C-alpha cells in the first residue's frame, strides 16, 4: 500500500524549482544524519546517511564546475572548498563510522545551506544552530573554513543555485540541469 503523504511530497518535489528540490534534499539528508547519529551502534545507518550526503554534494560540485554556472566566482570557490571539506569528512566517517561526533558539522552545513535554498532562516530545520565540534584530527581550520564558506554562500544570494540581477527590469528564468539562472 502506498503512503499518500509520500506520493504528495514526491509530486511536489518533481514540480518544484531546482533550488527548492536541492534545499529539500539537504534538509532531508541532515535529518537522516541526525537520526543515524542517535544510533551510534548502527554503523550501516551511519554509512548509508553519509553516502547519500556525499552523493548530494557531488551533484552540487558538478553544478559548480559547469562553465555555465551562473554563480559569482567567489561563491563558487567557497562552495567548492566547502564541498571538498565534506568529501574529506565523509571519507573519514566511512573509514570510522563510530566517530559520530564528526556528523555534527555535516548536519549543520546541510541544514544551513538547505534552509538558504528553501528561503528559510539560516538556522535550518530546528531553528537552532548547533556549534561545530572541535576536531582532533584535521584541525579546526577545516571547520572554520567550512563555516566561512557556508556563511558566504548564504549571504551572497537568497538561494545558492540561482542568480538574481538587481538591475534587471524583466528577468526570465532558464533551467540547465539542477541550476536555475536569471537572464535579462
TrEMBL record:
Protein's name according to its UniProt entry: Flagellar biosynthesis regulatory protein FlaF
Species this chain originates from: Hwanghaeella grinnelliae
Start and end residues of each stretch annotated as Disordered: 118-184
Biased composition (Polar residues): 127-184
Entry's Gene Ontology BP terms: bacterial-type flagellum organization
Domain of life: Bacteria
InterPro entries: FlaF
